[in-house]
């Protein structure tokens, strides 16, 4: 919450604090203008103003808008087809990036302190959870063999402690995937996969955190079976959360499934490689943000072939990292 307010303040205060003369200048004179302009308005204007002057001298050069109201908008237009940042613009962006990166790293001790404090509420993982008899019916076919019973137990362990808010969001994401327009279905699918992140990224580290690895598996072979069962359970959960999208767009089912399975498998692999579940969670949030802004990161509907290829390859590599790289 604090980050949100700080970010909004930086977006507003920088441009608001610049004088009208600074904004009208083709190139800002003071380096502080570039450094305080977090959104990059001065960087954009430095490149656009000469274009306006050359192509549309009839327009007021310091009064323009990026974007418009559509093809029928009567606003006078001008082309801006390239960006040519100078050294000061690049240096200011890099300075802001490294400043933000340094501040984020410096906050690590504070975050660790906050995470280590005794919690006043009961964690979801420690609650008895819901009975979920419908889940027992769905998992009954798996319980005919020993490995299937492991998978079923992991799914129950993942789903029963979830709070009411989790199930409400899951229900909303399910309905949105079924009835929303394309962009809404895409966003709902990303939200649904995000709900599975605690299972995808943290399941592999549970025994190390709780000190129960030797209790549950006395040999490396048993540990491998347990890792495989958790990996399969995570994959089934990812497919279950994506089921509405698989139903609505069956022609893109392989692409949706590949993306969902890669999220689950990569969560396990990153947890194994880094020893931390937050890595996969942060990378997924970044990827979802880019996807919602048009980047072809999670786009099984718009780019099904590329999604199926790259996410399928990522899932295979991640599974190998978990199953083979996990051996000691």
How would you sum up the major sheet?
A: none
Q: Structural class per helix/strand content?
A: mainly alpha
Distance between the termini: 41 Å
Number of strands: 0
The outline comes out as: globular
Helix content: 55-70%
| CA gyration radius, whole angstroms | 25 Å
Parts with pLDDT < 50 across at least 5 consecutive residues:
19-24, 120-126
Number of helices: 18
Written as H for each helix and E for each strand, in order along the chain, the element string is: HHHHHHHHHHHHHHHHHH
Q: Which percent range describes the beta-strand content?
A: under 5%
Describe this structure in words.
This protein has helices at residues 2-17, 20-24, 31-36, 41-55, 87-106, 108-116, 133-139, 146-159, 164-179, 182-195, 197-202, 206-210, 213-216, 220-241, 243-248, 253-274, 278-292, 304-323. The protein is an all-alpha fold and 328 residues long. The two termini are 41 Å apart. The longest helix has 22 residues, at 220-241. Mean pLDDT is 77; it is low at 19-24 and 120-126. Helix content is 68%, strand content 0%.
Sum up the structure in keywords.
single chain; 328 residues; mainly alpha; 18 helices; 68% helix
